[in-house]
Design a protein that fits this description.
Blueprint (H helix, E strand, L loop, with lengths): L17 E5 L3 H13 L3 E6 L2 H10 L1 E7 L5 E7 L1 E5 L3 H10 L2 E4 L6 H16 L7 E5 L6 H12 L5 H7 E2 L14 H4 L6 E4 L4 E4 L13 E4 L2 H25 L5 H5 L2 H21 L4 H14 L9 H5 L2 H4 L7 H9 L5 H17 L9 H5 L6 H27 L1 H4 L1 H24 L6
Length: 442
Amino acid sequence: MDGGYSTMGAKPYGAGKTAVMIGAGNVGRGFVGPAFAASGYETVFIDIDEALVKEINKRGEYPLRVFSPDGEVTETVVRGVRAVEAKDMSVASAEIARAEICATAVGVRAMPDIARLLAMGLAVRARTEGAGPLDTIVCENTLDAGAKLKEHVMDVLPSDFERAVEIMSGYPEAVIGRMVPVQTDEMKDGDPLRVCAEKYAFLPVDKAAFKGDIPQIEGMVPLDRFKYYVKRKLFVHNLGHAAIAYLGLLKGYEMVSDAAADPEIMFLASGAMRESAAALACENSGDASNLSRHVDNLLYRVSNRALKDTCLRVAADPVRKLGKQDRLIGAIENCADYGLPHVYIAAAAAAAALVLEKTWEGEGEIPSLSAVTGLEEDSGPYKLIMALGTAYSAATAKNGNAAAKNGDAVANNGDAAAKNGSTAISALCSRAVRLAGDITIL
């Protein structure tokens, strides 16, 4: 035993073509895992859910149901899979040590939690004769996810393994574009392992970050200048999705698809996406037409009712999503860097701040907008978000007072609340249009 890590339990390197998927949740079983399986890999899931692990091992397969926005439904069976509990560190790390490729999809907040497991696997691999490099595809929604995961791993790795692991381990980031919502009982349709997802199944990855040979994996597209594509995902896809969800919650919608069918919400969300796309086009001048098509395609895909994705799920964790480098404020600052307008993105940020205010369950007082976003109170973006939020709040208060006065709030509280949210979103939309100088819809 060296550095506290044992090679006991590790199978010989090269004994089978194996891919390890850390995280057997929506993205793991609904996207990356199936791509590994379709490419001829035995796919080993590592997860904390004991019941899920047992069911995967019992059957060795699971169904994947795919929905298109036009209503087409197909189902395939993902075969050649098994699973290991994450708490069984010796077995899980041995699987990592002998894998040809690895991937993570655990969520940004859980990245530090899997670092020790990865470190153990890499240390075992470093001591295994004939083992080559191991690349771990990082499927997490944050900028610099690969560098962050590597830092977490190196922080817990014993010093006598550092040089070897540094040489042999790569952390290429991926852009996760496929929408895989929380799996409801209705979606599972009697099968606890069934996963439902949209049809889109491309997996862009950072070509330059691989340490070993880049494997042939179905749907995987290695790209140069990858950081641009990460920003495009965060500042267009994630931005638009979040905008629809936050505005949808304020207007009383449960489903993302219903919010996406609302003309005012779609006007604000598409405006935000196009503002952000304009800034991204400044970084990549040849991509302007592709960005426009990308926005149109995303707006079409979020209308997919069969996914039954909820505004609550997409809007979860507004504190993180209002962070300075995340999808809302990061997109605003990217526009500001190029001197471009960002009114509609600010409207989405205002909606997120209002949802945070309405749903806060943390300790102490609700954090201030400046504390959450990192924006100075005298900055233009801060004042813009506040102005748009004030327009919504003023309309809410005015309509609420009128409803209370005429008894509507008592007689039909649900309808009154919905009407109140609708009126307030209209006020927010009108205010944004005036601030943007956009009179095309008036």
